[in-house]
Write a structure and sequence with these properties.
Aldehyde Oxidoreductase, domain 4, Aldehyde Oxidoreductase, domain 3, 7-stranded mixed sheet, 29% helix
Length: 799
């Protein structure tokens, strides 16, 4: 069968399910408490783990005394790094990138600790309560080695080294360059710039990290249930580390209560629980409490960017340069490497704009904090924040409207595919269309009139705009993190019809709240011609397909959906061949719809169940050569992936008395290609914007100079609540992408656009004070400080 026929079977009717707001099939079990999360697993007589974690940010482990813990009630084992040293090989987040040092992933700290919260000892007992009691009995003697709490101090010549063998705290360094940036900046009519920073964030999924290792003594096998969105990657890594064949190690991600990226990496606790299960021949469980989750799960952002942009007299951006200092924490996270977040900042800084010359340099430096890792948006929230602030600063300097300066610089319809200055290629998407649609939906001109009226009354009312682009559904030619030796560019779908006519579709992707069971079934229902209700979707199980990676980088609809379409086409052809025998009709005269094969223009039909019975049960109906298994598998690779785009427009008001920010209006115009389920798409946009509001106004992991986390609880770590989230208008621009189905990823966009749009709106609101916004979150305390500084400056320098 040709690729063309795979892409679009001749008899496929107009989609009935794709594009429809079908209610999520997951919701009934989740909303009624019948979901099964990792902590819900009930293996036979499981043991429970508690960890003794470091209270030191950077120290040598001189002595560990576990004698009292070993004799405590209910304790079965106490494990240190020395106890498990021969049971595994370190997992190395390898990369072929130059100027990169890969730190090993170990189950427990060995020799020294590098951040507060790092696991040192595992206590295994008959209950979590008893294990926690025994942890308190462990004595550890430390030799402090000096804390490194800020990226600026980590690069100092005399800074303590977290990894002596690396010889430096700079774990990754890269530079992108195009054109003569220095000359173009010198020749620019207007130059704007500044130092920008987004502080550390906690992903804070509703369900903390949780693992259950179920041991099968008959086969010496382990099934690891994990709240992960990359079960396939976790299986492969643990299999190699423990020398355990994949046939004896199954990794399952059941229902997962959110991730936002934090569950998209291999964690030391996952290694440890499998090592302990095999060592003890018992099943084990561990679920992080909220403190453990905040202080030991991967964290986000933490970049400082010194950037400058040059414009000609017509407002055309001609040059951009940036130096990025990324705080990557104590380790390089597997498999993404410590380059994932900071390198993507410099990769995406040019954004959707035609900037002639560019230089972007980045250093990712080790500090005494948990590793940074995947977080919704990965690098693009900070890069969009910087570029969009520079666009607004340029507009202000040139006397242009913020929408107009963007319109002059966005890549336009006739210019795709377009290679931006960092080398990323945007395929055809609706950059300008999103800008125009957002402006129209927001009533932009009327908002400006409203702003003028508010300012007459002395109110601080501002309007912010942010346009961005992102790569989604990345294929094999573009690594999610450069140089990784693992496949993140393809996904497999395996669709089967059993002897009853029921359809099971297995995927390598793994949902953590996106509604993939529903959207993937919608695609199959249309492309296979099946009844939506007859389709069962299996995902998040390393045994379901030969190779799987998981869900990240806005890839599930693009890669999983593409695989579903291709596998459906193959299986569709098999069904039609069988049906042509049963209906005594030509293969091309048969159409499939609603779980039936019908001769076109007649009422002669057979159900999928009748087809399955003929193949599997009734040996007299078909000749032997016509019987073929009713299953098909396809591994889909979109090669380059595809581009998603959006523009956000927000109107805010700053209360001069309390310095709180109130959002009056929020509009998103986004292009995610062919929409599979508009209800789910809108939900993803709303959730992403809510998270972006948190990053812009509330959320911050505060570390003191001794690298102690001061905001480790939900008392101190502020997140937006329902009253802080406005009603949102979402406008869809459905330009077709080049990948199968025309889909584009969209799960991260809200988090990318919201911080920049809100930062610009706050800066606009505070423009009477001539205040720049260059640090997020912009909480009331910071706004108060900026206003007071501006008032003091005005007194000292009266006009």
């Amino acid at each position: 069968m040709s690729k063309d026929s795979l892409a679009q079977p001749a008899d496929v009717l107009r989609p009935r399910h794709v594009g429809a707001p079908i209610k999520r099939t997951e919701d009934p079990r989740l909303l009624t408490g019948n979901g099964e999360y990792t902590a819900d697993r009930k293996p036979d007589r499981p043991l429970h783990i508690a960890f003794r974690r470091s209270e030191q940010p950077h120290a040598r482990i001189v002595r560990i005394d576990t004698a009292a813990a070993q004799t405590a009630p209910g304790v079965v084992a106490v494990l240190t790094a020395e106890d498990v040293a021969d049971d595994f090989k370190p997992v190395i987040p390898f990369s072929r990138m130059a100027n990169y040092y890969a730190t090993p992933t170990l189950p427990l700290a060995s020799g020294k600790v590098r951040y507060v919260g790092e696991a040192i000892v595992a206590v295994i007992a008959t209950s979590r309560y008893l294990a926690e009691d025994a942890v308190e009995l462990i004595e550890i003697e430390f030799e402090p080695l000096g804390a490194v709490s800020r990226s600026e101090t980590a690069v100092a010549v005399d800074a303590p080294l977290l990894h002596e063998e690396a010889g430096t705290n700079v774990l990754i360094a890269r530079e992108f360059r195009k054109g003569d940036v220095e000359a173009d900046l010198k020749g620019a009519a207007v130059r704007v710039g500044g130092r920008f920073e987004m502080t550390r964030k906690a992903p804070l999924a509703m369900e903390p990290r949780s693992y259950t290792a179920e041991y099968d003594a008959r086969r010496g096998a382990i099934t690891l249930y994990t709240s992960s969105n990359i079960p396939g990657i976790v299986r492969d890594a643990i299999s190699e580390s423990l020398g355990l064949p994949g046939s004896r190690l199954r990794v399952v991600a059941p229902d997962v209560g959110g991730s936002f990226g934090s569950k998209g990496s291999l964690y030391p606790e996952e290694l440890l629980i499998c090592i302990a299960a095999r060592k003890l021949g018992r099943s084990l469980k561990w679920t992080a409490d909220r403190l453990e989750d905040v202080s030991s799960s991967s964290q986000a952002f933490a970049e400082i960017v010194d950037a400058e942009m040059g414009f000609d007299a017509n407002g055309i951006a001609i040059a951009l340069q940036a130096d990025v200092l990324g705080d990557v924490g104590a380790y390089s996270i597997y498999p993404w490497t410590c380059g994932l977040e900071p390198v993507q900042v410099v990769s995406f800084l040019p954004g959707p704009y035609k900037i002639r010359s560019y230089r972007g340099a980045v250093r990712g430096v080790a500090t005494c904090k948990p590793p940074t890792g995947p977080y919704r948006g990965v690098g693009r929230p900070i890069s969009t924040f910087v570029t969009e602030r520079l666009m607004d600063l340029g507009a202000k300097a040139l006397g242009l409207d913020p929408i107009e300066i963007r319109r002059r610089n966005l890549v336009r319809a006739g210019e795709f595919p377009y290679r931006i200055a960092s080398g990323i290629i945007w395929d055809k998407t609706g950059f300008v269309e999103c800008l125009d649609a957002a402006g129209e939906a927001a009533g932009y001109e009327k908002l400006r009139v409203r702003q003028a009226e508010a300012r007459k009354d002395g109110r601080l009312f501002g309007i912010g705009i942010a346009s961005y682009a992102e790569l989604t559904g990345i294929g094999s030619r573009i690594a999610v993190a450069p140089g990784m030796p693992i496949n993140t560019g393809s996904e497999t779908a395996k669709i089967s019809i059993d002897s009853t006519g029921a359809i099971t579709a297995a995927f390598g992707v793994a949902s953590h709240g996106q509604g993939l069971e529903t959207t993937l079934a919608q695609i199959i229902a249309d492309d296979l011609g099946a009844s939506f209700e007859d389709i069962r979707v299996i995902q998040g199980d390393s045994d379901a397909v030969p190779m799987s990676t998981g869900t990240y980088a806005s890839r599930s609809a693009v890669l999983g959906g593409g695989a579903a379409k291709r596998a459906s086409a193959l299986l569709r052809d098999k069904i039609k061949r069988v049906a042509s025998y049963l209906l005594e009709a030509n293969h091309d005269d048969i159409e499939l719809s609603g779980g039936k094969a019908t001769v076109i223009g007649t009422d002669r039909a057979v159900t999928f169940r009748q087809v399955a019975k003929a193949v599997y049960s009734d040996m007299k109906t078909l000749p032997a050569e016509a019987r073929e298994e009713l299953s098909a598998s396809y591994t889909y690779d979109p090669i380059n992936g595809t581009t998603a785009a959006a523009t956000h427009i927000v109107a805010v008001e700053v209360d001069p008395a309390t310095c709180f920010v109130k959002i009056h209006k929020y509009v998103v115009a986004e292009d995610c290609g062919q929409i599979i389920n508009p209800m789910i798409v809108d939900g993803q946009v709303h959730g992403g914007v809510a998270q972006g509001i948190g990053a812009a106004l509330f959320e911050e992991l505060v570390y003191d100079e001794d690298a102690q986390l001061l905001s480790a609880s939900l008392v101190d770590y502020m997140i937006p609540s329902a009253p802080d989230i406005p009603d949102m208008d979402v406008v869809h621009i459905e330009s077709q992408s080049a990948v199968a189905g025309g889909f584009r990823g969209m799960g991260e966009g809200g988090t990318i656009g919201a911080p920049a749009a809100i930062a610009n709106a706050i800066a606009d609101a505070l423009s009477p004070y001539d205040i720049d916004v260059n640090l997020l979150p912009m909480n009331p305390q910071r706004i108060f400080g900026l206003i007071e500084q501006a008032k003091l400056k005005a007194k000292e320098n009266p006009k």
